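Technical note accompanying the year-one report. For the benefit of new consortium partners, we illustrate the data format agreed upon in the data management plan: each record pairs a sequence with a structure-token string. No post-processing was applied to the example shown here.
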Amino acid sequence: MTIGIDLVGTNLASGTKTYNINLCNELSLMKLSSNIKIFICKSYLNQTIKKKNEKIEYLIKPDFLSITFIRFFWMQFILPIELKLLGVNKLYSPMNLIPVISKFLKIKTILCLHSNLPWCYFNLMPGNFIRNFITKKLMEISIYSCDLLIVNSNFAKKEITKTLNLYRKNIYVVYLGISRIFFLKKKKKTKFFNFKKKIFI
């Protein structure tokens, strides 16, 4: 099986960028059973790939794809074709959106939703009303279209399930992780973390 991961994201300092870089770094350290193709912007490279992993292939994309509307066009219309040509069976999209036409190309999609803000606290979203409304609708389409949805907590799962009536949807909770630097601190400072839970670091 070949798995694709879309890490083409913003160059701005943000939670999304931190998540993408940490995920990329941690994958490079793991013993993997499947081949993974990671789509990533060129500017991310100097902050990623702690260790070369023979199961991972990095598909370097130009930095101009970090621009929101250009990235959206690439994700929706070009990425699915690339996935099909590369023989990718599943795609993991960790940034709230999936390429919707992947469904018609028989590529299974796994979507990670990081925020319920557009539905629960729309007025607190940064940016103008029109952009936020479009973002919200695109996220909804992605949520309804994906084969599996990942959220960051049980509370988020209950909230989004009720809000969008997702009772028949495959939804899994995977907690956000913490930086490895916390493992180096004294044990008493990390005793409130349950490291046996599934987390992304």
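Partners are asked to follow this layout when depositing records. The chain has one domain: 2-200.
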